[in-house]
Amino acid sequence: MAKKLGAKPRIGLLGTGPWAGHTHAPALAGHPGVDFSGVWGRRPEAAEALATASGTRAYEDVDALFEASDAVALALPPDVQAPLAVRAAAAGCHVLLDKPVATTVAGAREVADAVTAAGVASVVFCTLRFAEPTASWIEEQAAADGWFLGEAHWLGSLYGSGSTSEYAASPWRREKGGLWDVGPHVLSVYLPVLGDVTAITAAPGPQDTHHLVLRHASGASSTATLTLSAPPEASEAALTLFGTKGRAEMPGWDGAVDAFGAAVDALVASARTGTPHPCDARFGLRLTEILTEAERLTARP
């Protein structure tokens, strides 16, 4: 049974990596409307350090953190996240998931089904759906008609020459590449604006690069080039829509902490009202289905 939220919901954090440390923990610790109830991690010493820095407590037993929390945020590799999200939902905790929810359709479906069975709220933190000004821009374009074409390229340089990013050490990113790391960002914009993907063509490019051509339920089509291996001089994230009103370019955004705070607010609102958020676990499942098909189409012998 889903937990009922008090005046100040208790939200715990699963994960102690760079993303948790730079985004999740600061957002939860600084959010005036929630109680940061604790941190659990696969490395107890890292959980202790992050909890101390964030003014909360560390848990060695994840089930104890579930018991002490009304909701949990997850900042873990996707296929570690998925089974723990299932356990959290079964414990009645509302779940704030990272993208992708899982890298297998079965794993993502288990999460979505567990959320439904437990009656808990869920939100997938697709940054562009919660950051400003991109969130408002997406809503504006989704309300407009006449879109004909979308064109996106997300050229990350995580594995480019000279990169010193601490995220480059992430095993799952190294294995799955830009398709799975930045692909969810692009799809999280395209789907609410152009409609669900009804057909997909995909081809591999250099290193981890993937080129996608998508057909959407609205009749529009879109393209996306995704990579984490671009030269630093070429790195860019851009998305442009073309239609009867001309062209609309997605604005830039700065930082993820405020965006994560907005995602926390969305989860709390969904839990209080019982109204599913558009970017929920079912949406996360759909992203995994699309990315899985793209991966299949681009598999190298």
Can you tag this structure with a few keywords?
six-stranded parallel sheet, 301 residues, globular, 23% strand, six-stranded mixed sheet, alpha/beta
Name the beta content range: 15-25%
Task: Report the major sheet.
Answer: 6 strands, parallel
- With strands numbered from the N-terminus, the spatial order across the biggest sheet is 3-2-1-4-5-6
Mean pLDDT: 97
Task: Estimate the global geometry from the Cα principal axes.
Answer: globular
Assembly of the depicted chains: single chain
The gyration radius over C-alpha positions equals 19 Å
What is the N-to-C order of secondary-structure elements (H for helix, E for strand)?
EHEHEHEHEHEHEHHEEEEEHH
**What's the number of extended β-strand segments?**
12
Class computed from helices, strands and strand pairing: alpha/beta
Kindly state the percentage of residues in helix: 40-55%
Q: Which regions have little confidence, pLDDT < 50, spanning 5+ residues?
A: none
What can you tell me about this protein's structure?
With 301 residues, this protein is of the alpha/beta class. It is 41% helix and 23% strand. The chain has 10 helices and 12 strands. The protein has helices at residues 18-30, 44-54, 62-67, 78-90, 105-118, 134-142, 171-181, 183-194, 257-273, 281-297; strands spanning 10-14, 35-40, 58-59, 71-74, 94-98, 122-125, 147-155, 197-204, 210-216, 221-227, 236-243, 246-249. The chain has a 6-stranded parallel sheet with strand order 3-2-1-4-5-6, sandwiched between helices. Strands 8-9-10-7-11-12 form a 6-stranded mixed sheet. α1 (18-30) packs across α9, α5 (105-118) packs antiparallel against α10 (281-297) and α6 (134-142) packs parallel to α8 (183-194). The radius of gyration is 19 Å and the shape is globular. It starts with 9 loop residues before the first strand and ends with a helix. The model has no long low-confidence stretch (mean pLDDT 97).
